[in-house]
Amino acid sequence: MDIIDTIIQTEKTRENVRKAIPVLIHWAQTGQTNHTYSDLIIVLGKNRFSGVGHVLGMVQDVVEALAKKLETKIPTLNSLIKDKNTGLPAAGFSYVEPSYNTWSDEGKRIFVKGLDEEAINYPHWNMILDELGLSPLLSFSPEEIDKIKNPQRCSFGGESPEHKALKDYVKSHPSCLGVTEIINADVEHILPSGDRLDVYFECIDGSRVAVEVKPSISDDSDITRGIFQCIKYKAILEALTKADGTNAPVKAILVVRRDFSDLHQRLINLLGVDVQIIELNTEEI
Questions:
Q1: What range does the domain containing 79 cover?
Q2: Which of 107, 131, 155 is the last residue of a domain?
Q3: What are phi and psi for residue 51, nearest 5 degrees?
Q4: Can you give the pTM of this predicted structure?
């Protein structure tokens, strides 16, 4: 019996931990330290999941048990996951560091940054996967790469009423994306490249957020385009902040009203794209 089977009592939690660890390790290996609990929930194939803290606790238990077995130190992976509003691990991080909740936010940031750097710089993550009987984050088959590289061209005959309403909703409710202290909100915002952002926010701290919105009628090809649009928009915003001398934080968020396919979940995890599934009734938008 392996460590995961020994430590974790229920098959469903074992399954969730086996899904989570390769993704967390991939994020560590690629320096992705700003993923949120919502991102991890999507990794687990869910829209909502109240048990994500329990899964992270079990991940920590597995890492500690393996470290004991190998008689070595293994960095925690849990610090990589942050609350989207605070940019810090939630109160449950006290499971990793018991005194965590007694510290100031600044103290927490300094401590977590150190843990993140340990995880990023740890050279033996592939060995850890082998020890746990897990494979690295799944690569794509030639057929899947073809789908990613050559999405079908489709047209919905212009902007749908749902798409327009969803853009307006996101603009009016930035908190649903964890965006606060807005000083400018816009739809169809034009970038220097000529691209138009569905929704655009500027915040009081100088940060900028691009939002790509996909309605429920979007097919898989449209979701693929949305993923790569977010990568493009983030790069353009980063270049713009360098040009204007602000060097402010930027992000691009893909907002959808449908579930992601397995292919899209793996692509999002691999590329580190911020996503948000909004569950609203038609009347709400």
A1: 3-131
A2: 131
A3: -95, 15
A4: 0.71
